[in-house]
Design a protein that fits this description.
Layout (H helix, E strand, L loop, with lengths): L1 H20 L6 E2 L2 E3 L7 H6 L3 E3 L4 E4 L12 H17 L1 E2 L2 E6 L2 E6 L1 H9 L4 E9 L5
């Protein structure tokens, strides 16, 4: 019973921290209109056992991630270049999915987009933020 209480308290503390770190995004993030669609939300349940999704789309700083702007394959790098062009010309972006776990944040969905954003020197992006609340060791 004590262990469960500690886990719940730790999860609540993490949720509060992440909630304050990533503010609710407005309709424009870093000069780009935020689109309504969040692609591949089913990957959350397929990847995580216990999680909490913050309400609303959040503004996430690029500085929280180490990106290269490249992909390990030529096809992937070409997709990143295509997305750079699309984002720059449309001035729109679909929210990514970011998970925060005991190691910190990572992109669950949107790796090509975050690399494209890296290449166009974006400072932040919109994301659905999910907190992995599974037991921490």
């Amino acid at each position: 019973m004590i262990k469960l209480k500690m886990l719940l308290e730790n999860s609540n503390d993490l949720i509060k921290q992440v909630n304050s770190k990533y503010p609710v995004a407005g309709p424009i993030v870093d000069g780009r209109e935020v689109l309504d669609n969040v692609d591949n939300t089913s990957s959350i349940g397929a990847s995580l056992y216990k999680w909490y999704t913050l309400p609303d789309i959040r503004e996430v700083p690029m500085s929280d991630f180490s990106t290269t702007g490249k992909h390990y394959s030529v096809q992937g790098t070409n997709r990143i270049k295509q997305l750079e062009w699309e984002i720059e010309n449309s001035k729109t972006i679909s929210p990514l999915i970011v998970v925060v776990d005991k190691e910190g944040p990572y992109v669950l969905e949107g790796s090509h987009r975050i690399n494209a954003l890296h290449n166009i020197k974006a400072k932040s992006f919109p994301a659905l933020v999910v907190i992995d609340t599974e037991e921490r060791e």
